[in-house]
Write a structure and sequence with these properties.
The complex is a heterodimer of chains A (595) and B (299).
Chain A lengths: L5 H18 L6 E8 L5 H13 L6 E4 L2 E5 L3 H13 L5 E8 L3 H5 L6 E2 L1 H4 L1 E8 L1 H22 L6 E4 L3 E5 L3 H12 L5 E6 L3 E6 L1 H24 L7 E5 L3 E7 L4 H8 L4 E6 L4 H10 L7 E5 L5 E5 L4 E2 L3 E8 L6 E7 L1 H13 L4 E8 L2 E9 L7 E5 L3 H13 L6 E9 L1 H55 L2 E2 L1 H30 L4 H33 L2 H33 L10
Parallel strand pairs in A: 5-23
Antiparallel strand pairs in A: 1-3, 1-4, 2-3, 6-12, 6-22, 7-8, 8-10, 9-10, 11-12, 13-16, 13-19, 14-15, 17-18, 18-21, 19-20
Helix pairs in contact in A: 1-13, 8-12, 13-14, 13-16, 14-15, 14-16, 15-16
Chain B lengths: L16 H21 L11 E8 L5 H8 L8 E5 L1 E9 L3 H6 L1 H8 L5 E9 L1 H29 L2 H24 L6 H31 L5 H33 L5 H20 L1 H8 L10
Antiparallel strand pairs in B: 1-3, 1-4, 2-3
Classes of the chains: A alpha+beta (595), B alpha+beta (299).
Chain lengths: 595, 299
């Protein structure tokens, strides 16, 4: 039997040691925790004194790191209780839900960290939001309409009428000559729309694909930024906000258990408008009864209690002019309030209007999708400009609105097309079930291999454990997301990983039965089985990689662990077991093999 | 030495290929018939709607809950126990009413007198559902084609066709069994089917590899005999690997929780069918395809 090359021993040793080190963090206990960022390290003691009573509810540990405080808990329920307490006392500090793992400093230093658990294992919320394409089309067509009208008028081309439908404009002309001249004029100008004349002196204007995809792209880019800043306000650690495809955004919020608030904030287009009121309460009632505004250039609105009000059609200041917003409480009445800071332009507008209208009333309108609601009407007692406060909302609404105003309005409305929420306790159950099934399955395989192949089976079992450690290490190093389906993938790999060894061992047995010496049987067994093993594994690998092309959560998690498992099992079961076999049997006179 | 089969086994699988043909034929006809008449019970991933898993403090009555959640303007939700009497799965169809109201608030309002925990909530819009179905079919096709190319390159084109034939056989029967007993077909089952493709192929390749080797080393002019010898030689391995894989799958089925039940069932069925097909179907398909022993001067 040829001597097994020394570099292969070293390779096996090296892989095993580094895999063990990087897999290690997964075996330390981790706790649910809340991390609080305190900018000034001197204030840490103050914070502890003031707020620890809200944050401690079982015998938890408090860890200080630089300018961070981490409170750890023994259960997720305790953590979430504390988290809720924290959101009730108001937030002058940043806090996030975290998972704290008690790993030694030297491991952290070399970048070793535990596996990144998916939402189904740790609990959390996943959303897929899609830009409303019809809205983008509508806005584009509106733009076209006003541009084209302007241009036709400037060039003295008369049209009979304009029609706007879901995805096109139609200009109706008196005769075909005017149509032709309009066509030449418009064609010379732009590539944003496509012009299609039809038989009856009509001109159809369609949006070009280029213009649509350009608008879509910029809307997605803007929305991505806005969603990121909104997500940051929700206080979860390692949130994911990512573009998917051409018109979708994925948002993942680990650790969050209630999706209601996230839903209200993420997809919301809510904003504020400030308008002057028109007329008297009598006029308002009259307008309601007749169902038309009784005063010129005014519009009928509803207040929160359902009563009518007439407001000026002119907006003093809109959401776009709000620079900053915070929620808190009115100092005199103690009712929830939003503190608003306007941009310079907005402040200027506000000052001019309030100066001229002292004694009159101003309304604050809450605008969300197709709903407009007057939340507050107040008499202007003195001129004001940049900063002021708004009341009339409940606490939660005030909090949400201030987040929305701070992040700015979505540049195109988005709709939730997929949602997956997993409660944290289900996550814990999933982890436990995954672990148990893995241990039990492995136990069965290990026992079987040992009874069936004796010493060789024992060697294959060592390779199996090594394989598991390597998979865990690779998942940890690349921080690939481990999901429940990922665990299923690992369990499956455990079952299939011994296959390579089974192939080799069966070959060795055949060689022995053919009357070959033990050493040459080993040599021939490994050699002959190799091509079979690689063919079989490469084809499985192809199937696993095509799984990756589907790319969606469940499937991807499974495919990733399967691919890693196949590769590492080939390494451990061919190179790894061979090294052990060589140590035991090489250069010794064998009379028989324990196989 | 413990062996499942005696040292020198010589089962005449090829001679029995007509029985296999009949068995496979029946299974495939049953499967296709079930697709046509019952269709597949698509899970939420591939259709659309809401699934909510609620855990109550005490045991609950399904009828009672169902009444509370049924609103006149809402398609009747489907409720079922999940594992125990205090855990319930509720399925709503996609509906603008629930969309606007926000499902969490809807539940909160209608179940206010009960104390429950939301364990899981899944919503898939209709567009996503059909997209996923397309992607799934696409992935399956890509997998089959790339495998055909690889085997065609490593072996011979006809072997590739034979392997694909065995694969399609396995996939049709596995999916067919899901359709027959109307088990829910979700994304995890799709992953299982694709894994079965990988697994069953693995088995087939091992047999084909042996056939290729034997056509070179054994002086034997009858392809059928070579086929039979090869299947017998790999029989121990085929069964041992299936056993170890089944060990872990059964433990996944028993201990892995309801979330992976369908995955485990699909895999177990797939592995059993895959094992059967690599012994009885893959090899004999080569005969029907007309593969023969190459004579010396052709080599």
């Amino acid at each position: 039997m040829e001597s097994y090359p020394r570099w292969k021993y070293l390779l096996v040793l090296f892989v095993l040691i580094s895999a063990t080190i990087y897999a290690l963090p997964n075996f330390y206990k981790s706790y649910p925790g809340i991390e609080i960022l305190i900018n000034d390290s001197k204030n840490i003691e103050n914070f502890k004194q003031d707020y620890s009573k809200y944050l401690t509810n079982d015998n938890n540990k408090i860890i200080e790191q630089d300018n961070k405080l981490i409170y750890t808990y023994n259960s997720i329920d305790a953590q979430l209780d504390a988290y809720n307490n924290l959101s009730v006392i108001d937030s002058y500090f940043d806090y996030t839900l975290v998972t704290y793992t008690d790993i030694p400093a030297w491991l952290a230093k070399i970048g070793a960290s535990p596996m990144f658990l998916g939402l189904d294992l740790k609990g959390g919320v996943h959303f897929l939001l899609q830009v409303d394409e019809s809205n983008i089309k509508k806005n584009l067509l509106r733009e076209f309409e006003s541009d084209i009208k302007k241009e036709l008028i400037e060039n003295k081309i008369r049209y009979k009428s304009f029609e706007r439908s879901k995805d096109q404009l139609r200009i109706i002309f008196k005769d075909s000559e005017t149509l032709d001249s309009a066509k030449t004029l418009l064609e010379s100008n732009t590539r944003d729309f496509i012009i299609m004349p039809d038989s009856n002196s009509n001109l159809n204007i369609l949006i070009s694909d280029e213009a649509l995809s350009r608008d879509l792209k910029s809307s997605i880019a803007k929305n991505l930024t806005i969603l990121r800043s909104r997500v940051d306000e929700l206080g979860v650690s390692q949130p994911i906000v990512q573009k998917q495809g051409k018109d979708r955004i994925i948002v993942q919020l680990p650790g969050l258990q209630d999706s209601t608030r996230a839903k209200n904030i993420l997809g919301s287009t809510a904003t504020l408008e400030f308008r002057l009121t028109k007329g008297t309460p009598e006029d308002w009632l009259q307008s309601l009864n007749q169902n038309i505004p009784s005063i010129n250039s005014s519009k009928l609105y509803k207040q929160r209690d359902g009563s009518p009000v007439l407001l000026s059609r002119k907006i003093i200041v809109g959401g776009a002019d709000i620079k900053n917003a915070n929620s808190g409480f009115d100092s005199t009445t103690n009712s929830p309030a939003v503190f608003v800071t306007l941009s310079d332009y907005g402040a200027d507008q506000m000052l001019k209007t309030t100066q001229k209208n002292i004694g009159k009333r101003m309304a604050v309108v809450f605008v969300e999708k197709n709903k407009e609601e007057v939340i507050n009407i107040a008499v202007i007692r003195e001129a004001f400009s940049k900063s002021f406060q708004i009341t009339g909302l409940n606490r939660e609404e005030a909090q949400n609105l201030s987040i929305l105003l701070r992040s700015g309005a979505l540049s195109a409305p988005m709709e939730i097309v997929e949602e997956r929420t997993v409660g944290p306790s289900l996550g814990e159950e999933n982890i436990l079930a995954g672990k148990n099934s893995m241990y039990f399955g492995m136990l069965l395989v290990v026992l079987f291999m040992f009874f069936y192949y004796r010493i060789f089976g024992f060697i294959a079992n060592i390779a199996l454990f090594a394989n598991l450690i390597i998979i865990i290490a690779i998942l940890s190093v690349f921080q690939a997301t481990l999901t429940l389906s990922g665990i299923a993938g690992i369990v499956l790999t455990v079952g299939m990983a011994v296959d390579a060894n089974v192939l080799i061992f069966e070959r060795i047995r055949e060689e022995i039965l053919n009357g070959n010496s033990p050493n040459s049987s080993i040599y021939a067994g490994y050699k002959k089985a190799f091509s079979t093993i690689s063919d079989a594994n490469i084809t499985t690998l192809i199937a696993a990689i095509s799984l990756l092309t589907i790319g969606t959560g469940v499937v991807k998690g499974f495919a990733v662990t399967l691919v890693i498992g196949i590769l590492s099992s080939m390494f451990t079961s061919i190179i790894g077991t061979r090294a052990i076999v060589s140590i035991i049997y090489e250069n010794k006179k064998q009379t028989g093999l324990s196989i | 030495m413990i062996k499942i089969f005696k040292n020198v086994v010589d089962y005449n699988f090829i001679q029995k290929r007509f029985f296999a043909l009949i068995l496979s034929g029946i299974l495939i006809v049953l499967s296709l018939g079930s697709f046509l008449y019952q269709g597949i019970n698509w899970g939420i991933d591939f259709s659309s709607g809401y699934i909510v898993q609620l855990k109550f403090q005490d045991n609950v009555e399904i009828d009672n809950l169902s009444q509370k959640l049924s609103k006149s303007n809402l398609a009747k939700p489907v409720l079922q126990y999940y594992g125990s009497k205090n855990e319930v799965i509720v399925k709503f169809q996609e509906n603008s009413f629930v969309n606007e109201k926000n499902i969490n608030e809807f539940l909160l309002q209608n179940l206010e007198d009960q104390s429950y925990k939301l364990m899981k909530l899944e919503f898939v819009g209709s567009q996503i559902g059909s997209e996923l179905r397309d992607k799934g079919e696409w992935a399956m096709l890509v997998a089959l084609l790339s495998i055909l190319v690889y085997i065609g390159f490593r072996f011979e084109f006809l072997y590739g066709i034979g392997a694909i034939f065995a694969l399609i056989h396995d996939v049709i029967i596995t999916v067919g069994i899901f359709s027959l007993i109307q088990l829910e077909f979700d994304l995890s089952v799709l992953s299982a089917i694709l894994a079965v493709i990988g697994y069953s192929l693995n088995d087939t390749i091992v047999v084909f590899d042996r056939i290729r080797e034997n056509t070179r080393t054994i002086r034997e002019s009858s392809f059928m005999k070579i086929l039979n010898i090869s299947i017998n030689q790999t029989l121990n391995r085929t069964v041992v690997t299936s056993l170890t894989t089944l060990f872990v799958l059964v433990s996944l089925l028993l201990l892995g929780g309801i979330a992976v039940t369908n995955f485990a069932i699909a895999m177990i069925v797939g592995v059993l069918i895959g094992t059967y097909s690599s012994i009885f179907v893959a090899g004999s398909s080569l005969i029907y395809l007309g593969v023969q022993v190459q004579s010396e001067d052709q080599k």
